[in-house]
Design a protein that fits this description.
By secondary structure, the chain is α/β, with parallel strands linked by helices. It has 3 domains: 80 residues, Arc Repressor Mutant, subunit A (Orthogonal Bundle), CATH 1.10.10.10; 91 residues, D-Maltodextrin-Binding Protein, domain 2 (3-Layer(aba) Sandwich); 114 residues, D-Maltodextrin-Binding Protein, domain 2, CATH 3.40.190.10. Helix content is 51%, strand content 20%. The chain is built from 13 helices and 11 strands. The strands form 2 sheets. Strands 3, 4, 5, 6, 7, 8, 9, 10 and 11 form a 9-stranded mixed sheet that branches. Strands 1-2 form a two-stranded antiparallel ribbon. The longest helix has 28 residues. This is LysR family transcriptional regulator.
Length: 305
């Protein structure tokens, strides 16, 4: 009874449908269905009720528990064999936000693959809240995120401090206030966020750090937290800001990384609450694995304070 079939059942259960599971496993639905049927024949019982959404039989629930344990043991064995053989092998699952991935990953991945060319990396992108939950549930080997409180079953190492500012194009300031650009910029810096109340805002989702900070800062400045545009894609918001459509709350490291597009933007600093620590979180019960440790070390060496 091939362990691969056990792993496929785990993926099928987590995906909730044959369509999504086959996409994740990169096999055809027919192959997945045939393999499941063969597994059921070998066990002499039905494991899955082929409904929408998919459901497990009682026997399937029992089998899934053992399948997950077997998959975990198989992964641990392959990782240990890779460490013993030197250089490592396997797939490192890294949780990271889309924005932070664009800023950090080009440099981190270059150095990481020089050290461990046999290890591939799977980036799982999401909001900060999603990344924290993935780490708590052990769905990633590590996550680069804001862990702002105690998280059960997660070990966190601080890497660097990040700061969100309110970025605005001088052209928008000049048009709104009918002032020369230099004068408008000086006035905006002197007034701070409260001085921008007449300008339109571009807001990220409240589930992400910048979106949450934006709403807190706007509330403290007694500005109604309603965005002209709301999006989960920070790059889209930056494009709009660079086109003088509105103000955007954005981390300074992303502004630095996109300078050809955002170099003209004025940065209005916010309160101390807009500065926070980004760390690497790992499931506490995960055994030591060279690729995860190397990735963390590379990230710390390149971007650690």
């Amino acid at each position: 009874m091939a362990l691969e079939s056990w792993k496929w059942l785990v993926q099928l259960t987590e995906s909730g449908s044959f369509t999504r599971a086959s996409e994740e496993l990169q096999i055809s639905q027919q192959t997945l269905s045939s393999r499941l049927a063969a597994l059921e024949r070998g066990l002499g019982c039905r494991l899955v009720v082929r409904t929408t959404p998919l459901a497990l039989t009682r026997a399937g629930e029992v089998f899934l528990e053992y399948a997950r344990k077997a998959d975990s043991e198989r992964t641990a064995m392959l990782r240990q064999l890779g460490d013993v053989a030197g250089g490592g092998s396997g797939v490192l699952k890294v949780g990271i936000s889309n924005m932070r991935g664009q800023v950090l990953m080009p440099h981190v991945m270059t150095q990481f693959h020089r050290s461990l060319p046999g290890v591939s990396v799977r980036l799982l992108e999401g909001t900060n809240e999603e990344l924290v939950r993935m780490t708590e549930r052990g769905e990633v080997d590590l996550a680069v995120a804001l862990f702002d409180s105690a998280h059960p079953g997660v070990t966190v190492r601080r890497i660097f401090r990040e700061e969100v500012v309110c970025a605005v194009h001088p052209k928008l300031l000049a048009q709104t206030w009918d002032l020369p650009s230099d004068t408008a910029c000086s006035l905006a810096l002197a007034r701070g966020l409260k001085g921008l109340r007449d300008l339109p805002f571009l807001l990220e989702s409240i589930d992400d750090i910048s979106g949450r900070i934006a709403r807190i800062e706007l509330r403290h400045a007694q500005i109604k937290a309603k965005g002209l545009v709301e999006s989960n894609n920070m790059m889209t918001l930056l494009e709009l800001c660079a086109s003088a459509v509105g103000c955007v709350f954005c981390p300074t490291n992303l502004l630095d990384a996109t300078e050809p597009m955002t170099g003209e933007l004025l940065r209005v600093r916010l309160s101390d609450a807009a500065r926070y620590d980004i760390g690497v979180g790992m499931p506490s019960d995960a055994g030591a694995w060279t690729p995860a440790q190397v990735f963390e070390d590379v990230l710390g060496a390149l971007y650690g304070d």
